[in-house]
Every structure is written in structure tokens, then in C-alpha cells.
Specification:
With 317 residues, the chain is α/β, with parallel strands linked by helices. 38% of the residues lie in helices and 14% in strands. The mean pLDDT is 87.
Length: 317
């Protein structure tokens, strides 16, 4: 099984993003702010590899491009430990990951400064620290942009496992939870969670939208053909981290770690599929690329289709 993204996937994504950016330029918006692109996909799906290649390609065209992961905004380990102790009955908070474990105030401040082309420092998170528990790196190691005398950032590519997820609210979440509880034993991670714990996470997720998720002008969505692919992909990622750093989570810890994310995948991923969801103006069409991949990360389906992507902006908007 390969851990690389196939060329078809990369070419489709690059074509889509390039067309979106050119359309953005044609509208004259760059005079006031950078172009924001989002990439949403489960752990190990290739988000980081994809955004790195997109960034490098745009940089080669002399377009100042930076990438930011939602993981960069995880709370420091000490704060995560405090959160866990404050909610001892919520297993979803036993590790970093779900909504509520990020510093959303910091995240919104960073994106606001980027939008206004102000100087900004981007935090970073060391996932291998403390045997895979992770911790925020020292501020002296944060990357700085838009400094005096520097060219301003033109493109910001944001990526995250839950990027663009929308909170459901009490009524809809309760109905979904009750539906999951009717499924055969073992088929749903959501059914194993207490409703109160899911409602806590959902309430936190609502805080992510305004000023954070709603910043993107376009969104690329990576989806596993089967949700259980995520376990295999995450193991691959952790094994690479272990080879590089000599410390990481064990395989058993990885499975428990992914288990904490699964209710969110089950509850929220479908909300991204509607064309226009997860972007700055959710009434716009043709601003979203959806890609379904098999276990080897080979493209199975896309929406729009590859041929349609080439024609999106051929007609007057």
C-alpha cells in the first residue's frame, strides 16, 4: 500500500485551485486581502502533502503562499491536561483533537491579521513531543509573515481534519445520536458516546465558524471511500513520525486516539458535501472540490468531474 498521493489527485487539485485563484484575481479582490483556500480531510488522507505541493507550485509562480494547519492551534499540553481533568467523564477530551481542544481566540486573531495584511506570527505544534501527546512549540520558533520590508502574503492555504464542519445544534444532534444508537453494535462510534459529551463538542464547534472556518474562498474536500481507512492512514503517519523522531504513540494508542475523532466524522462529514458549504459565501457555487479516495489514496470520484473543472470559469460569472 502506498502512502503517496497519485498524480491524478494532485493535478485535479492544482487545476481547481489555480482556476479559483485566477478568478479571485480577475475580480480585483487581491487589492484588499489575500486569497484563502481550505483543505478538509481525515487524518492521514494526504492533506499536508497536498497543501505543501500546492504551496510550492504557487511559490514557483512568484505567488507568496503560506500553509496553516488547524493542528497549529491546539492548546498547549498543560491546558489540554486541565481540560481533561475538568471533564473527566468525556473520553473525547482524553487527547487533543476534537473541537474545544484548539485555541480559537488565537486562530481568529492570526487569520484576521492575515486578512488585513498585518504582521503575524503563526504558531506550531510538535505532535511527537511527550511520546505523541504533543505540545505547542516555543513562540521564538513561530513563523513570521508580513513583516516590514517583506512582500505581503497573497495566498493562505488552511488545512484540517474538521475544516468546514458545521455544528448541528441540540435538536439535530440528538436526533442523529438516537439514529446511531439503532445501528448494530459496533458499527457506530457515536452511539458509544454520552449525548451530553457530544453536545459539549458541538457547542464548541459552533465557535469555530465565524472568523475562522468562514474565511475560505474555496474548499477542497478529501474523503475516504471507507471511513475505517482512517485507522490505517493514521498508523502510517505515526510510524513515519516514529522513524523520524524516535517517539510517537503506540499502535494501540493510535487506535484509541482515532476513536475519539470518529463520532465527529460520523456526525459532520456529510454537511460538507452540499456545494457551497464551508466557504466564505456559502451561496456561491463551483467553489468546492470533493475527492473520494480508496485505501491507497487513488481517486475514485470527484465533484465536479475533472472535465467540468476545466469549464467552471469559461462562462461569465
Amino acid at each position: 500500500m502506498t502512502s503517496q498521493l497519485d498524480d491524478q489527485f494532485l493535478n485535479i487539485s492544482l487545476k481547481f485551485l489555480t482556476d479559483q485563484y485566477l478568478h479571485f484575481i480577475d475580480k480585483g479582490t487581491p487589492d484588499t486581502r489575500p486569497f484563502f483556500a481550505g483543505v478538509s480531510g481525515p487524518q492521514g488522507s494526504g492533506k499536508t502533502t497536498l497543501v505543501s505541493k500546492l504551496r510550492d507550485t504557487l511559490q514557483q509562480e512568484d505567488i507568496i503562499t503560506i500553509t496553516i494547519s488547524i493542528d497549529d492551534f491546539y492548546l498547549p499540553l498543560e491546558d489540554l491536561e486541565t481540560l481533561r481533568k475538568d471533564h473527566p467523564d468525556n473520553p473525547m477530551l482524553s487527547t487533543r483533537g476534537v473541537p474545544g481542544t484548539h485555541d480559537i481566540t488565537l486562530a481568529k486573531s492570526v487569520l484576521a491579521n492575515l486578512e488585513d495584511s498585518k504582521s503575524v506570527d503563526i504558531p506550531a505544534y510538535d505532535k511527537a513531543a511527550f511520546n505523541g501527546r504533543g505540545d505547542r512549540v516555543a513562540k521564538e520558533e513561530w513563523a513570521s509573515y508580513n513583516q516590514i520590508g517583506e512582500r505581503k502574503v497573497q495566498v493562505v492555504i488552511l488545512e484540517g481534519w474538521c475544516w468546514g464542519f458545521r455544528s448541528l445544534g441540540v435538536e439535530q444532534l440528538t436526533q442523529s445520536w438516537e439514529h446511531h444508537r439503532t445501528r448494530p453494535l459496533g458499527e457506530s462510534k457515536t452511539a458509544r458516546q454520552e449525548l451530553s459529551n457530544l453536545l459539549w463538542v458541538d457547542n464548541e464547534l459552533e465557535k469555530y465558524w465565524t472568523g475562522f472556518f468562514d474565511k475560505v474562498d474555496t474548499l477542497i474536500i478529501l474523503e475516504a471511500e471507507r471511513l475505517d481507512h482512517v485507522y490505517t492512514w493514521r498508523l502510517e503517519t505515526e510510524h513515519r513520525l516514529r522513524d523520524q523522531r524516535g517517539e510517537s504513540m503506540s499502535d494501540i494508542e493510535v487506535r484509541a486516539f482515532v476513536d475519539n475523532y470518529m463520532p465527529c466524522y460520523e456526525l459532520y462529514k456529510d454537511s460538507l458535501r452540499d456545494d457551497g458549504n464551508g466557504i466564505r459565501n456559502d451561496k456561491q457555487k463551483d467553489r468546492q472540490l470533493w475527492v473520494s479516495m480508496d485505501l491507497d489514496r487513488r481517486v475514485q470520484r470527484t465533484r465536479p468531474t475533472a472535465s467540468r473543472i476545466s469549464r467552471i470559469f469559461d462562462q461569465p460569472s
